[in-house]
Amino acid sequence: MFRKIAIAATFTAFVAWSATSGQQDPKTVLSNVSKAMGADNLKTIQYSGSGADFSLGQAMNPTSPWPRFNNKTYTRTIDFEKQASQLQRVRTQGENPPRGGGGQPLVGEQNQNQVVIFNDTTPWAQRLDLVMLPWGFLRAASAAPDTSVRSEKLNGRRYTVLSFQGQNKASVNAFIDDQNIIDRINTKIDNAVLGDTLYEATYSDYKDFSGVKFPTRIVQKQGGYPVLELAITDVKPNVEANIQPQQGRGRGGAGGPGAPGGSNAEVPTEKLADGIYLILGGYAAVAVEFADHITVIEGPQSEQRASQIIETTKKLIPNKKIKYVINTHNHFDHASGLRTFVSEGATVITHQINKPYYEKVWANPHTLNPDKMAQAKAKPRFETMMERKTLTDGNQAIELYRVDGSTHNDGMIMAYLPKPKILVEADEFNPPAQVATAAPQNISPYNVNLAANIDRLRLDVDRIIPIHYPNDARKVAKAELLTAIGKAN
Fold first, then answer.
1. Distance CA 235, CA 214 (A)
2. Cα Rg for the chain, rounded, in angstroms?
3. Confidence band, pLDDT 50/70/90 cuts, at residue 8
4. Which of 384, 462, 463, 464 gets the highest tally of CB atoms within 10 A of its CB?
């Protein structure tokens, strides 16, 4: 009898401890949070305000935040039941003068209307756009089979933390305060440059809008810097959403004809000169044959695109090893294939400011989506430059120059091939879809600066190879650049 009483007393004490320590079951916590936030009957919501978005991976240099674009107005409508979202906003230039990438300089006002209809085939990284919102998290956590609850202290505050495993096998965590309000949500996502990357959203300064608690300040961060900052001024719960798919939207863009395909995709190429080949089918790359090796200019976009460039290079120049890959600058769209070249044993040639950055971020785990470099456990090798560097075997030559005065990237490198008089450049001049016959109304400072560098270095340029190659695959003459800056002959 005494043993039974003792066991009962111990169980009672455990229950009492669980209640006082906040260790509740997930369903109870979800119910309490949903009631506190007014989410029980929330089917749609529309919120408006202003703020800024920031272009991930497009910083001026490795230690700068992502470049800012002002959101003069911002309105988002979400239908949680139909899993649909519509974002309407007016963006303006946020960096003055322009510094970094992401489509700068943005002239005037840019009106955006973005509609996304989510379904089971939508990639998880995109579905997180809803899951990282408090109300989207509550729905996802309620449906997840493995939702758990724990207590955790963060920044001196005690939180109840609800967690479930996302489709990428990373935990998605909501931090709930003592008022049953979601303070922040975080998870990890894969990034080709950064590896397993923290994605965090914080929600503060909640107010009541027709029975729904909504934060009037929202901050989302990736890679340690903000990607979105909003001040919310108006919230309308359960509005008529009526979000319809956008019609007639194709996906083109600077980067050359075709899209990066699988290893069996036909890749457009052009022989530029003896031992020099242009590789299209995505962002452009140039393969240059030396006496005992190959150098590739640019390792862009993704592992898939880099693998495509590597395979094509080996077909064009058989029986030689890719010894070097030249990185024009550290923006993610131009650096996301570099690790693939490292796995092939190539040495990365980049500006000096990038080496410490790459060494740091490439040491991050790549467990969510192990790439070829992680699988091979390859160690990166670097050769760096400051203002200029020449690669030559006595016959073939590549002259590398830092683009002085670039406001796109502090470590911007352009490559000059002296024999064929070809300049390979990234982002300083992105040609329009068709050949321009007159200067544009707003002349890009990037274009002006590139022309000034060509003059400063006295480079005899007949043809320009933009990494963002025009979709019509035309040959881009220097005359196009001169037209773009109003100096056509």
1. 8
2. 27
3. very low
4. 464
Q: What is the dihedral of CA 20, 22, 25, 28, to 10 degrees?
A: 100
Torsion angle (degrees, nearest 10) of CA 249, 255, 260, 265: 110
Residue 303 lies in a domain: yes
Amino acid identity of residue 139, one-letter, is R
* d(C-alpha 104, C-alpha 331), whole Å: 13
Round the average pLDDT of the chain to a whole number and report it: 92
CATH number, domain of 429, equals: 3.60.15.10
Q: Which of 203, 75, 26, 201 is nearest to 128 (CA)?
A: 201
The three state secondary structure string of 82-132 is CCEEEEEEEEEECCCCCCCCCCCCCCCCEEEEEEEECCCCCCHHHHHHHHC
Domain count, the chain: 2
Q: Is 48 domain-assigned?
A: yes
Query: Taking a C-beta distance cutoff of 8 angstroms, is the pair 332, 426 a contact?
Result: no
Would strands 382-385 and 347-351 be described as parallel, antiparallel, or unpaired? parallel
Question: 100, 409 in Cβ contact below 8 A?
Answer: yes
Q: Is 197 domain-assigned?
A: yes
Q: pLDDT of 352-405, one tens digit each?
A: 999 999 999 999 999 999 999 999 999 999 999 999 999 999 999 999 999 999
pLDDT at 49: 98
pLDDT at res. 246? 82
Helix H or strand E segment including 394: none
